[in-house]
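Interim report to the steering committee. The following record documents the input for Endonuclease/exonuclease/phosphatase domain-containing protein (91 residues).
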Amino acid sequence: GQKTAKNGVGIFVREPLAQEVLDIKRINSRLMWIKLRIEKQTMIIFSAYAPQTGKSEEMKNDFWTAFSDTISTIPKSETILIGGDLNGHVG
């Protein structure tokens, strides 16, 4: 997610796909995405690591705000894949 961070998120891309990377966006140490061209489709792949239990509400809110703000900028014509650990509860 950040060039100088010791911890955080990352995305590995196999060598044949590396030449298809159009853009990389590092939002913070917990959130990043890459844009790939796969055949005729543009795909955004997110790597996200939400703050876990025990972290402050402010940190959690900052993460979800950054995540939501980032996703809202992506055109609906592009496919979004989200990977990572969102530390959520269902129910």
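The radius of gyration is 14 Å. The committee is asked to note this result when reviewing the revised timeline.
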